[in-house]
Automatic annotation (TrEMBL):
Keywords: Calcium, Disulfide bond, EGF-like domain, Signal. PROSITE patterns: CADHERIN_2, EGF_1, EGF_2, EGF_3, IG_LIKE, PROKAR_LIPOPROTEIN. The keyword Disulfide bond applies. It comes from Branchiostoma lanceolatum (Common lancelet). This is TIE1 protein. The keyword Phosphoprotein does not apply. Residues 331-431 form the Ig-like domain. Residues 297-327 form the EGF-like domain. The gene is TIE1. GO terms for cellular component: membrane. Disulfide bonds join 317-326. Residues 1-20 form the signal peptide.
Length: 522
């Protein structure tokens, strides 16, 4: 599928490439196109005009080769991030401009998936010729199976790793004197192999399928090299027998060793038979840092501190970066975890970190939708800097507040506005211990439990007092009506009296989550 998309994208160049006089080009390119993939020729014949990209090259995805005049993919594309580009190219020779409408074609199998279930941290040994795992066999034979060192063991074997489902498939070719003499060509021995996982919880399944006549009867798979089945010229046995063993393992969990109890029953046409039982351990050892794949020879493309998956090279980007290679700026805002069961009078510290933003961005904190000001008695500390390891800017803001009443609890939100006017927001909850009624908060003293009857009595007392006050107020209003002979307003207030509930939020969208871009959930 991936190669087909590249071919279809290339066909679009037939009508656009090197066509003098046209000012607009429509180009299609697959998102899985590798850096260096040519998508348009800007020079034709002996034309020596000089072109350069003057506008629209968002995130520096494209470039022009000065020698050949080819427009090519400079960095990895991603359909979900940007599906269209409008790139302007200027001819410095005569000042002409070309408008390139570049459409990115979605590839369902791209980009690779980072599945944490089967992630293996990089191993210390810097050897890129060893598989990212070993399968150790403990039986009467006493040898290690499916181990590749890139030399004798790895000459006729390969591993295919599926990261989406955390699956591994290994092909191993066996070719020796025993197989040639005991298993004549064209015969199929009796072979039964079964394994039971003995770990709790269960860690995947494992099956082994032999192909006894693999020289001419084997599955069609790109991981199988036909050269494995070529007989050496120095062979004393003429046509040696080749046996291909396919081992499949599903639902791999790589946090620790996976152990199976296995049983093998084998009988040849000449009467040789064996029954063996033993333990088989799936031992993840990872790939050297910067490598991935079944033989740990593929080079990772993750940048800016991205974590490379050893199965398929998928990148897990740190906060502040996104894209196939973690090379596209993606500002993030992260707030410290929620604070629950806070005791009255306790001091709470809440931190908010913003990465890959302009350090001069404006910060604000709000409590229950109202911006916190210095007059609220909240201490604020802010630091700004640059993270060398992740190649990103950062701004950290921390507030320290005392949670003394119910009004001090609730939602605390931090927000910042970039120099371009974009608003980012994240919030955390601060909850007092137990259940409190706003009308009866003084009925509770710190550190003393109350029964349901006490709480109910307190609430009913409050309601009764409120009813008495309301009745007394109404009586006073009626008395004034009779005395003055005119109505007295029972609602509202003079315009000269300020509304003490009016918010003084500088960022009115602090509570409008629908309008916030790139909200990050911890």
């Amino acid at each position: 599928m991936r190669h087909l998309l590249k071919v279809l994208a290339g066909v679009t160049l037939l009508f656009a490439s090197c066509h003098a006089g046209r000012k607009t080009y429509s180009i299609a390119v697959s998102e899985s196109a590798d850096p260096g993939h040519v998508i348009l020729c800007l020079r034709g014949g002996i034309d020596k005009k000089t072109y350069r990209i003057s506008d629209g090259n968002k995130d520096d995805r494209f470039a022009i080769d000065r020698d050949s005049g080819n427009l090519y993919v400079k960095r990895y594309l991603n359909f979900d991030i940007d599906s269209h580009y409008e790139v302007m190219v200027t001819n410095d020779h005569n000042g002409d401009e070309l408008r390139l409408l570049i459409s990115v074609i979605d590839d369902p199998s791209y980009p690779p998936v980072f599945n944490p279930t089967c992630h293996i941290p990089p191993r210390a040994r810097n050897d890129s010729s060893v598989w990212p795992f070993m399968v150790r066999v403990s039986s009467i034979f006493g040898y290690k199976l499916l181990y590749s060192d890139g030399k004798r063991h790895g000459q006729r074997s390969s591993a295919y790793l599926n990261n989406d489902q955390c699956e591994a498939k290994v092909f191993v070719v066996m070719r020796d004197k025993f197989l040639t003499t005991q298993i004549p060509p064209g015969t199929t021995p009796v072979f039964q192999f079964s394994c039971t996982n003995i770990r709790d919880p269960t860690r995947g399944t494992l099956t082994a399928t032999p192909y006894w006549n693999a020289s001419y009867d084997r599955p069609q798979d790109d991981a199988i090299d036909p050269e494995w089945f070529v007989n050496p010229a120095s062979s004393r046995y003429g046509e040696r027998r080749h046996v291909l063993l396919e081992v499949d393992m599903t639902d791999i969990i790589t946090e620790d060793l996976t152990v199976f109890n296995c049983r093998l029953e084998f009988e040849t046409a000449t009467g040789f038979s064996v029954i063996s039982e033993g333990k088989l351990a799936f031992d993840p050892i990872g790939c050297p840092a910067g490598y991935y794949g079944g033989t740990c020879r593929n080079v990772c493309v993750c940048q800016n501190g991205g974590n490379c998956h050893p199965f398929n090279g998928a990148c897990k980007c740190p906060d502040g970066w996104t894209g196939r290679a973690c090379d596209i700026v993606d500002p993030k805002i992260v707030i410290s975890a929620n604070h629950g069961d806070v005791m009255p009078g306790q001091t709470v510290q809440i931190s908010c970190a913003v990465v890959n933003v302009d350090p001069s961005s404006t910060f604000a904190w709000a409590r229950n939708g109202r911006q916190l000001l210095p007059s609220d008695g909240v201490k604020t500390m802010t630091s700004r800097g640059f993270d060398v390891g992740m190649n990103r800017t950062f701004v950290n803001s921390t507030i320290i507040t005392n949670i003394s009443t119910l009004a001090d609890s609730g939602e605390y939100a931090c927000a910042y506005v970039t120099s371009s006017g974009k608003l980012y927001r994240e919030s955390a909850q601060v909850a007092l211990e137990g259940t409190f009624s706003p009308d009866c908060i003084n009925c509770f003293s710190q550190g003393r439990p109350y029964r349901a009857e006490t709480i109910a009595l307190c609430v009913m007392s409050t309601l009764a007092i409120s009813l008495i006050v309301a009745m007394a107020t109404q009586c006073e209003i009626n008395r004034r009506k009779r005395k003055d002979g005119k109505a007295v307003p029972t609602a509202g207030r003079p315009r000269s009296v300020p509304d003490i509930k009016e918010r003084t939020v500088q960022f009115p969208n602090l509570i409008a989550r629908g309008a916030v871009e790139n909200e990050y959930v911890v």
